[in-house]
Amino acid sequence: MVSRSLRGILLAFWMVALQVNALTPEWMTAAQARGRLVTQCTVPGTVGMTFDDGPHVYTKEIVDLLKSYNATATFFLAGSNYDCIYSEAAVSRVKYAYDSGMHLASHAWSHGNLAEMDPPAIHDEMYRIEPRNPTEALLKIVGVSPAFMRPPYGSYNQYVLDAAYLRGQAVVLWDFDSGDSTGATPDDSIRSYEDSIRKRPSTILALNHDTYESTAHQVIPDVLPNLKAAGYQIVDVAACLGQVKYQEVGEPSPRDSTWHC
């Protein structure tokens, strides 16, 4: 929890930075800067495949399945949701996904509803206030700083867009929901994909979760060949937008006392 005095300092910094546009990342054009919200892919013929809420026990299986179809996906990772991202198991899953060519992005730290938080609290979820930050965690674990984030539940407001802007990140939603997190059965999810494919949209930005056994073992194995047969290229968010994956790529850090939740 951020102290009252620090929250005041952070809010003041926030307002000054927004006013002077001091932190606009070089890789963004002016039109892509403050408040950029992504709701669909822009590269024709692509499916931006995404998985939220991990890392989880099914992450590696989904990664292997994607690789078998020469596909990639974006994994929006939380810092402390089902597991602490610094646990040995979670670190292994994050590294495996990254080393397998998957795209890693931020899903905030605690999976809280960012739109219900005040600006300093949003800041605390997304910035490097302390080691509890998925952006910092990804720098430590695999050496990357993400260029994209997805707010939990897809819930956002202007404060959330501003926070992402200050971090140099685009906010990513979706235009297709498999429904795996909202009660859809595997058959329901598969039918939803089939219905979408029949409509032949130029692009699809698909929301899934790598935290459900049925998604890993039933839905994704069924839909990947169908998407391929329909002529779609199954890629990550960066590829379906024609953008770079990360703001920074470096070397991971050795595990130390800061690797905790």
Automatic annotation (TrEMBL):
Q: What biological-process GO terms show up in the record?
A: carbohydrate metabolic process; cell wall organization
At the top level of its lineage, which domain of life is listed?
Eukaryota
Heme: is it a keyword of this entry? no
The signal sequence is 1-22
GO MF, one term, reads: hydrolase activity, acting on carbon-nitrogen (but not peptide) bonds
Required cofactor(s):
Co(2+)
Task: Note the InterPro entries from the entry.
Answer: Glyco_hydro/deAcase_b/a-brl, NODB_dom
List GO terms (cellular component aspect): plasma membrane; side of membrane
Key words of the record: Carbohydrate metabolism, Cell membrane, Cell wall biogenesis/degradation, Glycoprotein, GPI-anchor, Hydrolase, Lipoprotein, Membrane, Metal-binding, Signal
Question: Which Gene3D superfamilies would you find in this protein's record?
Answer: Glycoside hydrolase/deacetylase
Membrane topology listed for this record: Lipid-anchor; GPI-anchor
State where the protein is found.
Answer: Cell membrane
Domain NodB homology: where? 45-235
Q: Which PROSITE patterns match?
A: NODB (PS51677)
The protein here is known as: Carbohydrate esterase family 4 protein
* Organism this protein belongs to: Coprinellus micaceus
